[in-house]
């Protein structure tokens, strides 16, 4: 559901530009609101959420889909953890829907989906692994990479129950905004994907803005 935000960028307490292929790893405190902004349109932001005080608790696609009865996320969606707790709620969304099923690109999936020679191309799992390796204080590794949300990604479900990766439905300046219901460790890979049409084969930056509780 399309709902615009009343929050002003000038009032944000934090604003970060995430280049294509780079990662974002920061804590959003309970009560704060985070906006992911699709700067140039049709970019995919592959995102993982963890309880910042206990990263063993993390986003669960299964619980989120079951409780809302919808495989897509938008305004009003409560993002649940694997312990059934509400982690965040989407409070504004100018894109309309976001994918929970397509997963993240990896060297292995690039090989299966596209060609053997694509294996060495940069992928979202690489960005996540780099983030964790550069922050050893978190005590996390590849075993902690689980379900993710693909914000701005268009992954329709076919009549046969399969998935397809199609042209994006976002546009420059579209955003999704979430209020944190607990302290959240946010790990985003700004997708470097060059193989499917989600971003017109042209990865671009996204921005992440954070506001204190209103």
UniProtKB/TrEMBL annotation:
Location of the DUF1989 domain: 17-185
Signal peptide range in chain numbering: none
InterPro entries with a match to the protein in the record: DUF1989, UAAP2
Top-rank taxon: Bacteria
PANTHER family: RE64534P
Protein name: Urea carboxylase-associated family protein
Organism encoding this protein: Vibrio porteresiae DSM 19223
